[in-house]
Amino acid sequence: MKLNINAYYKNNRLVCNALLSVAQIIFVGLTYFIIYTLLLHKLGPEKLGIWSLILSTTSVANVATTGLALSLVKYIAMYNADIDHIKINKYIKTGLFIISLLTGAIILIVYILGKFFLPKVMPLNNVQEAINLLPLSLLSLFLNSITGVFLSTLEGLHHSSFRSISYILSTVVFTIVAFLLINQYGLMGIAIAQIIQAFLLMFLSILFLKLIFKKLSFFPLVFDKQIFKEIFSYSVSFQYITICVLLVEPVVKFMISRFGGLSFVGFYEMANRLVGQIRALIISANQIMVPYVAKNTSLNNHKIDNTYPLLFKLVMYVSVYLMVLLIILSPIISVLWIGSLNNVFITSLIIISIATTLNLLSTPAYFSSMGVGKLKGILACHTTFLILNGILGFVLGQFYGSMGVIIGYSISFVISSFITIIYYHKIYNYNAWDLLNQNKEGCWIFFNILFYLFLGILLIYNVNIMPIILYVFLSIGLSILFLYSIFLKDVDMKLLLNKLVFNCKNLIKS
User: Fold this and answer.
1) Lowest mean pLDDT segment, chosen from 16-20, 147-151, 225-229, 324-328
2) N or C: where does the chain have the smaller number of CB atoms within 10 Å of the terminal CB?
3) By residue range, what is the domain housing residue 166?
4) Residue 8: what pLDDT?
């Protein structure tokens, strides 16, 4: 049995990496579901809002690491192909040195800025608790930043499946510890559970790395100036993208808190996290295709990316199906998760889901651009998103409160996404209308679903007792119709589905 699994893993490493990546996202999603349920029902929506603000504040410290981690993946993969163990160790040690110093410095700045800004965006009676949580949250983030070096090394060695296993195991432990501590310590218990998770994740990543890379050594811890230049020069664009991405969420949450209060932040966080986990599943599939896009375009001298139309079709069908189903079931999710029909949660979920559906259409262009090394469209996308989000969020927030901030965020999300598509189409002379015409069956169903969707929204807000059972049956009927019309009739979708089922069966048999 063990030999069969090992043999399958060696021959189908890409499939294993992809399946475990999906499993990781599902486990993390379940963890958020459990933790937010605990926070909401045991501590209340205000405490959930505080936790959400602290998470968004401390996440800014990730500015120091994400771009550098991507650089490590690239160079370690390159030297792994050359079987240069000495060079790989130098990259690991230099990465640890750089990331420790940068993260430490940025964490200090974030702590000072957090103490300054938090009193301005939340009620004064909650400020002290938030400030007390800040050091513990920053400590767990510092540990995770260092661990990022080991996880990036695993990915560079083409063993991202062990990265996923590390995340899954540490997430399970985090959930258990948080459940045991929340009654006695409240938010402080969640923060302690985070630190335990960070230590465990570090231990597991080092353990797996040592098992895979026998030549691993940490001492002496050296700083290689040449390696630093290579890492930094490659990561500049990714670093800028990271800064833009990480600044968006704190800005949105701070404005929501200012215009609507901490409870609003908590319900927005739940809706946004739920949509984000579904989006992550679709994005992970696109990320796997990046090396194939790079290989495909290099073979035809960068004249055209033949994988793009198929990726666009797949993402359009899957994203429309999953996001619309999520919107349709939003009242039921609200009742099961929150315990009532919460208008803030449902409305936030609907707005963000619609924006995300349109955003996901840009993911093939986004990751294909990365695959061929064309980053101008991506840079323009994130710059526009950051600036437009701040402007629209503030202006609409003045007139429509916190919901105006969410609408501003969603409009910015969609506009910036289409910049990526326009740029990529310009590079390879794709005609957007032709692309949509090739998928006219999917477009027709998309608009029919939108009609049904708005009919459902009218039911939610205009009927005193919503017929939930009827709504569920209609949702299931719509799901079956969509699956039949797309996945069972479209030739490309059938081939992809058959291939996925075939690989899953082989893995089970092994």
Assistant:
1) 16-20
2) N
3) 1-244
4) 45
